[in-house]
Each structure stands twice: as C-alpha cells, then as structure tokens.
Fold:
Amino acid sequence: MGQHLTRRELLGAGLLAAEAGLAEAAPAKDALPTRPLGKTGIQVPILGFGTAPAGIRRSLENGAALYEEALALGVTYFDTAPSHTGYGRAQNQMGEFLKRRRKQVFLVTKCHESNGDAALRLLEKNLKELRTDRADLVHVHSLGDLDQAVAMGKNGVLQALLKAKREGLTRFVGLSGHHRPGLFRQILERFDIDVVMNAVNFVDRHTYGFEEKVWPIAARKNVALVAMKVFGGMVYRDKGMSNSMMPKDHLRQAFRYALSEPQVATAVVGMATSEELRRNVAWAKQFQPLTAEERQSLEPLGKRLAAEWGAHFGAVA
Structure:
C-alpha cells in the first residue's frame, strides 16, 4: 500500500487482530432472525445497529454500554463512521466496546472521500479508533456527494478500497448513499461490490426509489441489500432520543416495509437509548412481512408524506 499501513503493520502498532471469521457468540434463548448478506457467505441479524445517534447523544462509556446491551440481545451487525460524517463519538465508543467483543461483531465503517489515497488514510484512522486491524465491511460513503470522475477513476476511492480488501484491511467493500440512485447503477455495472446500503422507506420510495431503480440490479448480481433511514432519518428533537422523520404511529410499519423488500439482508436503525433498542429488537423478533393489502394501504400515506418531505436527502438525479 505504499505509504499506507498494511494490516501487519497495524497489528505491530498494538491494535487488535480480527479473526478470519466471526467467533460464535452464545446463542440467545430467543434469537434474532438472520438472513444471508448477499454473496459474502455471512449470516446477519435482520436488525443492525446504526451508531450515529449514540455517538452524538451518549458519552464514551455509555455508548459502549449500549452496544454491550445490544450484543447481549443478539444484535451483532454494527454500522459506524468517523465523526466528520455526523457520527460524533461513535467510532471511539465502538473501539472501547470492541476491546472485549471484536470476534462477536460484524463491523462496518465508511470512507467519505473521492480520492483513493485520502480514503486509505481515513481507513487507517478509522481502524485505529476502532482498535482493530480490519473491518468486516467498508462503504464508499454517501456516494452521491462525491466527485464521481475522481471516485470512479484509476486513483479513486473505489479502486483504493478494492485494493484494501485484497490486502486484508477489510473483508468486503460496499456503497452507501441516500440520493442520486443512477450513480449506484453505474458502479454496480463496473465494479465488484459486495454490499449496497440505501435509504429505503415507504415515503422516500416515491422520491428516490432505490427499491425499484437500484436494488433489482444489485440482487441479480447477488450484492447484499441493506436498508438504512427506514424511519426517514433522524431529527433529534428530544434530549437523549434519536427521533425520526416518520410519524411515531407508523414506525413499526416502516420497519416491516424495509424488511419486506425482496432479498434485503438487514435494516440498520439508529439508536441512542435502551428503550429504542429493546423496542426494535422486539419488532425484529416478531417480524412478519407486509401483506399485499398492508403494502397497498401505505401508498397514499407514503405519497402524502413524500410531498411534505421533498428531496430531503439531496438531489434525485
């Protein structure tokens, strides 16, 4: 990797080693349902932990304690990112947590850089904060906001992260994004991507439409599908809570909608409190796909809210 640290060098710096596979955690009596993560060969729980709200709302120790509670409840998929992308203390909280739990966790981090060298420097920084030598999955973060010519070029972030995968700094490479779905189609045709994570809910379907525009292509290639912003994104109205755009009366319907999409592996939900965590775990354990009638009943509500929300994640095209 030239001037960048190799996996072996990171180990030599005293960081924790990630095993080739996740260690088996003690099975819970009432385990969370799991699904295959596309072509990766990994099974993941249908509820993933989005760490941004905890990174913003909780201290270092309290954040790590919440992740411990989540793991005890069967949540093993943890999605995080550096502070400058809106995740606050999340990666440092995860680092504290991972000192004890690395082998039990599927760890996701992100690189919000167009240039490949900058992306590799950020990945090294992420791994140091996380106190590990390797991530399980690294996303090219917020794809729609990047310089596309640079990102997809010879010295861009996509080539850099694929190289990082070959050199053992990550097991898998993904794309994450909230808007400009056409860009995802282009990259899925050109690059060997393992996972895509998009904003998917019954409201933004009518604005961005990743479900129809991107996910069928990814599914045909056996690229794993991960839903985010299933509650429409966080707005942080009340102290301590990761409040959502979605009206409270429709949160469970939104959760079921995301997990009812064909071939979706997991829904990553931002959580800042034990109350939210336990509610979402209960919903995951009780999950039933939406019926055709329930899906149809969400159409008028989704269209009405889409008109109110507008293109709140950014440009569509």
About this structure: The chain has a mean pLDDT of 91. The longest helix spans residues 292-309. The first strand starts at residue 34 and ends at 36. Strands lie at 34-36, 43-45, 47-50, 77-79, 106-111, 135-140, 170-177, 195-199, 224-228, 264-270.
